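[agent] plan:
  1. take the single chain provided in the ticket
  2. run structure prediction with default settings
  3. attach structure tokens to the ticket
  4. add a short note for the reviewer (M.T.)
[agent] executing step 1
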Amino acid sequence: MRPENKDLNFIQTLNKKLTRKDPVLDLAYDRMGDAGIVFLCRNKDLSHVQKPDLSWNEITDEGLGVLAGSGSLAGLKHLILNANQIGDEGAKSLAVSKNLPNLESIELAHNQVSDFGALSLVKSQSLLNLGFVDLEMNKVGQQKLTRFPDGAVVSKLRILNLRRNLLADENIADWAQTGAFEKLVHLNLGWNQLTNQGARILAHSPTLNRLETLVLDSNHIGDPGALDIAGSKHLNNLVQLYMQDNNIGRAGETALLAMRSRNLVEKKRVDDKLNLNEQRLGNKDLVSLAQYEKLDGIVSLTLRNNHFDYHGVQELANSPYLKNLKSLNLMSNAVGDKGLVLLAESPNLSQLESLNLENTGVTALGILALSQSPHLNKLKELNLNSNDLGEKGFRILADSGNFKNLTKLRTSGVSVGDTEFQAIVQSDTLSQLEELEAMGNVITRESLDSLADSAILPQLKKLDLRRNKLKDVDLIFLADSPKFHNLEALRF
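[agent] step 2 finished; step 3 output follows
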């Protein structure tokens, strides 16, 4: 391993990159080998380097030992070593290094690390800031360990990826026994060799009580293992569970969905409010969620940006536990007119005062159902942003007595023109409006004149007309007209 024999082009390229003082040092695919590591570590000016990418470089345990022993890389926070030739000794050299106090993540995917090396990293007594270890596509599970590395689990370790290894049930028993999982919030065990027994070991391990995400896809787990996971008294924080491509039937699936719903409600509920935004909830998730009795008493439910459609909305509409609901946010889901019809027909939602339908595929047909609903006639806030309502939709909105209590109306990005806007501001039934948002439409001066003479304006407090077809002279009219001076907020 003689650095003087390293290819001259590599040395020149490295020197150029180091001259730029970039905290990210990209050396992937340079085939630098161990000799390149020696040359890199002999460079005296590496204090700025925080994230070197050394993937695909034919680095072995020997080269990694040199890096771990170097005092020139103390600023490292993220170390990427994917697709090299690193085994247990290399992993151990990192684990015992005193020169990497700031290291936060290690990527060692597609190497040759087995159980001892992996556990050495997890239980390192030196890498106390390590929060993420990626060991995908290694040889973890190849060994049956008779002894385990000393020390507790790294104090900040939260994410461990052991995907595509050789882990069988007995290996998981060893790992759980060592306490290797006790600090984790995310554990990926997908594409291994786990069976029902392995699932049971995980379910009964008290060291997994902090876990929020567990990946077990593409193993050999059936309904018994799924039922063990679902019934675990330790996995109370688990809200993301991936078990696709196993042998799980309807019984196991139903139990897992119920567990997830239970955990989500317990974890995400704050007093009488439940925030389930961006939880990847599909129709099946809403089936179990809507049947969970601890939804009773919820007054605010937000489900923005999930993966359900009108089938999921039907489950909410039929839930007997949402009768106290006053605020419902369905933004960025495929609700559509069918879903809005189901909401409109539900007597369980008769207390609803705020409904967010932004970007839900609603048209005039859905607004018609809402306008004729015998149950949803207490709405005070309605968000219709980013839908295609058309002139008909706005006429319905303006004429229906169901909207007489509206104080806040949002219609941004719905192609509102003068005809539609004037229908709103000249409406007798919408005379209680205090906030009106109509950004990103095609409103002109004609609408401003109509608004100035409308019955809505005196009680209107907030008006947002940004990104419309208004000219400078129109904006001057807005600013100078005394009729608009009572507004608390005017944005144009």
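[agent] step 4 note for reviewer: The first strand starts at residue 24 and ends at 26.
[agent] ticket updated
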